[in-house]
Amino acid sequence: RNFFTKRTKELKPAVQSAPGWKLFGKVPPRENLPKDSKIIQQEYEARTGRMYKPPPPSTRRKNIAFEPLSTTALILEDRPANLPAKSVEEALRHRQEYDEMVAEAKKREIKEAHKRKKIMRERFKQEENIASAMVIWVNEILPNWEGMRATRRVRELWWQGLPPSVRGKVWSLAVGNELNITPELYEIFLSRAKERWKSFSETSSENDIEGASVADREASLELIKLDISRTFPSLYIFQKGGPYHDLLHSVLGAYTCYRPDVGYVQGMSFIAAVLILNLEEADAFIAFANLLNKPCQLAFFRVDHGMMLKYFAAFEVFFEENLPRLFLHFKSYSLTPDIYLIDWIFTLYSKSLPLDLACRVWDVFCRDGEEFLFRTGLGILRLYEDILLQMDFIHIAQFLTKLPEDITSEKLFSCIAAIQMQNSNKKWAQVFASLMKDNKEGDKNHSPALKS
């Protein structure tokens, strides 16, 4: 205020000599003297003949036990002085509305508190179960693995999910090491991969890449690097600079040198990443190589179309048996299993399901083998059957390609448990074997030698 007062005094002579302007014609200049708020109020009262009355003090109730911090409490406020006061009936109605709002807010708060307590109780119970299961696995099962692995008690405990502390060890034992790979062999192939990457980066050119074989191109450093950056991107641990980036790169590179006939195929990075999270580097490579050597994985990663079609046909046998309505719905749109199953089988559900749920699927997969991969697929279809029955081809494909993120292990495994892997008293292995037999007989019937 002092600042503007001084400026006004200093500029006063100049303002008096300067003409004032209006839109149409000249007007004499006006003095711009500061006025006190009381003077402005007195001038207003003199001009209008009204006396200013300060607003009455608020009669809002104090010490209310609970007030929501929102505009709903405004219904208890009195109206401004220039508006008519509330009637008794309206005030009572507002009071009633306010009490109802407060009661609803309290109910929601109590409900949410009960929900949080329930979640905490379930979490504590789950942790206690994991702790007790871990003691059984460490002290009883693992020391006597060969004798106890097939017992009913162990299989039931296995179905409930492996404790994270023993998961890697059980996976290694269940997958086995038929290839007899040693940590020293892993180091040899890793050094070969590093040499190849070094020479590839130094001498790579367009002609070299065009002249390379399919396996060499798929095993190139660039393709593996690209896939690593896409592996569990939300975790960031496999991204460049992350703690597991180089480790994943090493395991995948060593495998491409170990199995040049298979090479690197997109989707392998997810399997290797899950193993790295649960095993040491060399053990992860050993489990990875043996896992991809299983008939189902080898058929898919080698893109053996004939074998893949047999797996899809076996899957459809049990699909029709367990979910006939959904099977017919898919048939009406010519929606074949390869549209959604390839991605699930390629990554062993590690890309399609939340990581903790995917690990539990892996637990039982290591117990039951390839059959459980297709049983899990049927469990997913059963879980979302009602939704899928209302969708068309495009929406079904989109839905199954990207499953909901809120899928829980309890719901999924209850649906998997309801799936019966038996058709006309034939189990998965028998159905698949009969399909393979029919295929061989069909090949014989179509052979030129037999026709001649």
TrEMBL record:
Keywords: Coiled coil. SMART domains: TBC (SM00164). One of its GO terms (biological process) is vesicle-mediated transport. GO terms for cellular component: cytoplasmic vesicle; vacuole. Residues 88-123 form a coiled coil. GO terms for molecular function: GTPase activator activity; small GTPase binding. InterPro entries: Rab-GAP-TBC_dom, Rab-GAP_TBC_sf, Rab_GAP_TBC_domain. The keyword Coiled coil applies. Pfam families: RabGAP-TBC. It comes from the Eukaryota. Residues 161-369 form the Rab-GAP TBC domain. PANTHER family: RAB GTPASE-ACTIVATING PROTEIN 1-LIKE, TBC1 DOMAIN FAMILY MEMBER 12 ISOFORM X1. This is TBC1 domain family member 12. It comes from Merops nubicus (Northern carmine bee-eater). The lineage of its organism: Eukaryota, Metazoa, Chordata, Craniata, Vertebrata.
